[in-house]
Amino acid sequence: MQDPARADNSGASASAVAEPTSEGEAPTSEGEAAVELVTAGLPTVLHPSCQTDGVVYDVIYADGTFYLGGTFTSVGPPGAEPGGTVFASREGIAACDADTGAVLPWYPPGGVDGQVRALATDGTWLYVGGKFSDVGNLGHDNLARFSLSSAAGDESWRPSPDGQVRRIVVRPDGGMYVGGRFERIDGEAQAGIARLDAHGDLDDEFGPSVTLEGGGAAVFAVTESADGSALYVGGQFDEVNGEPRASVVQLDAATGGETGAFSPDLEDTNPKDGVVQVHQILLHDTGVYLCGDWWVTEGVGSQDAQRNLGRFDPDTGAADMDWLPSNDGGVADCLFSDDGTSLIIGGHFDEVNGETARKLAALDLDGARLVSGFPGGNSAQGVRALGAASGGRLGIAGEFTKLGGEPHRGFGVVGFGADRPPRRFGETESPLR
Questions:
Q1: What's phi and psi for 242, nearest 5 deg?
Q2: Beta bridge partners of 62
Q3: CA–CA separation, 237 vs 27, rounded Å?
Q4: Nearest one of 213, 254, 252, 216 to 235, comparing CA atoms
Q5: pLDDT of residue 420
Q6: Cα–Cα dist 153/350, whole Å
Q7: 3-state SS of 94-133?
Q8: Cα–Cα distance, 410 to 122 (Å, whole number)
Q9: pTM for this one?
Q10: I need a surface site. Which of 41, 59, 81, 224 has the fewest CB within 10 A?
Q11: If pLDDT is split at 50, 70 and 90, which confidence band does 37 have?
C-alpha cells in the first residue's frame, strides 16, 4: 500500500500502490527509508452491552448510561436474540447501563415515530434530533428534549425544524447549534444550520447561507473553536454565503459570516455519488481533522485508496500531506483517544493503509499509522457513531451484528484498559486553539 505519510500533492493517481512487506513496512525505492504502516496498539476488550433489533445512528454517554438513537423497535440485554421475551419495546430511543448492558426503564412514552439521527446532552436534558413527527407523545417535529432523570418531555421547548436534524451541539450558555437537512426552524427561513437560544427560539443574528447545486444541502458536523469565536461546519454543500466551498467552511460564530481562507481541497470522484460529505470535524493542536466520505485530497486519492480523512491547517485548510491515511470506504465518525495520541474512526471501510481494519480502527497522530488491536465489525454500513464514556470505554453504534467476531447487534462497548475514555475535543472542551 502506498505510504500515506509519503503521499504528495502532485495530482498523480494513488491507485498504483505498494504492498506492505511481511515486517509491516512499505517497500521503498533505493535510498529511501522504510516507513511503518502499523504501530503497536492499545489492549482492547469487549464489554457487556445491550442489543438492538435495528440500526443505531447515534450514541451518547451520561452518568453511567449509554443513550441510543436510531430506527430499532426493541432492545435487549447482552447476548440476547432479537424477538425474544427479554427484549423490551423501545421505538428509536433507549437507555442502557454502561457497566452491565442492562436495558434501563428510562424511555419517553411511545418512543419515536421515525428515525433518531442525533443526540446531545447538557447534563439535565437529552436532546433528540432526527426525522420524525412525534417523540414521547409530544407531537414535536424532528427535535425535542427529555429529562435525563425522568424521561419526561418538555412540551414548551419546540424549535420545529421542517426537515431532518443530523447534529446538535449544546453551548455553554444553554443554547445550541443545530445542523441537518432543513429549510426552516421555528417558522423562519434558515437552511441547514441554525443557532437556538436556551428557550429553543431561533437566534436570527446568526444566519449563514448553505446551498448545494441541484438541492439537498445538509450540515452534518458543527465544532466551535475553544475561544468560541469561530465555527467549523461540515456536511454536503458547495456554496456558503455565496462563496464556493467543498462541504466544509469556517464561520464567524457570532454572525455566521465566513471568516478567513479555510478551504480544504476535497473532491469526490465517485461516479455514483460525486458530492463530498464531511461527517465530523475535530480540533487539535496539530490541526483540524476532517472525517467523512470523499476520495481525493489535493489531487491524491482513488477508489482503492480513498482519502476519507485528513489533517488540515486551521487557517488556510491546506492538507498536511504527511498525515493522509488511505482506506476503502467512508468514515462516519471519529474521535481522539484521551491521551491525545490516536484518532479512532468508524465507518464502512474494510482496509486502512492497506491493512485489514473492518469498520473500526485507530491511527496514531504522529504518522497516520494504523494502531493494531481493534476489534472489527461486519455488515455493509458498519459503524455509524462513536460515543466516549468513563472507565476507558467507547460506545460503538451502527448496523453491524458482530464486533470482534462476537454477537453485538447495533451497539457494542470496547474498553481500553486504562481508566480514561476517548474524547471528542472541539465540542465542549478542547486542548487547543
A1: 85, 0
A2: 65
A3: 39
A4: 216
A5: 42
A6: 40
A7: EEEECCCCCECCCCCCCCECCEEEEEEECCCEEEEEEECC
A8: 25
A9: 0.87
A10: 81
A11: very low
